[in-house]
Amino acid sequence: MGFEISGRTGGHVRLSKKTPEGKVGTVVPMHKELKIGTLKGVLKLAKVDEDAFSKYL
């Protein structure tokens, strides 16, 4: 989806990408599984539509 790793801290990784509207970023916990609420929060910060993301699963 065009994101690049912009940093790591402990058990989290920061992802970012440049868009025509500006820079977009999010933080993803590095767990084997994510709770649905956590995933939705990550997608919201990244400004990624849930339906668009589901195509990558």
Contiguous uncertain segments of 5+ residues = none
Class derived from helix and strand content: alpha+beta
The number of domains is: 1
Shape: globular
Strand order of the largest sheet: 1-2-3
Put simply, the count of helices is 2
The fraction of residues in strands falls at 35-45%
**Corresponding CATH superfamily:** Hypothetical protein
Largest sheet: 3 strands, antiparallel
Gyration radius over CA: 11 Å
CATH architecture: 2-Layer Sandwich
Q: For the record, give the distance between the C-alpha atoms at the N and C termini, rounded to a whole number.
A: 12 Å
SSE order and pairing:
Elements: E1 4-9, E2 12-19, E3 22-29, H1 36-46, H2 50-54
Antiparallel strand pairs: 1-2, 2-3
Task: Describe the overall structure.
- The protein is of the alpha+beta class and 57 residues long.
- The chain has a single domain, classed as Metal Transport, Frataxin, Chain A, CATH 3.30.920.
- It is built from two helices and three strands, in the order βββαα.
- It has helices at 36-46, 50-54, and strands at residues 4-9, 12-19, 22-29.
- Strands 1-2-3 form a three-stranded antiparallel β-sheet, covered by helices on one side.
- A hairpin with a 2-residue loop joins strand 2 and strand 3 (22-29).
- The chain is globular, with a radius of gyration of 11 Å.
Short descriptors:
28% helix; Metal Transport, Frataxin, Chain A; alpha+beta; 57 residues
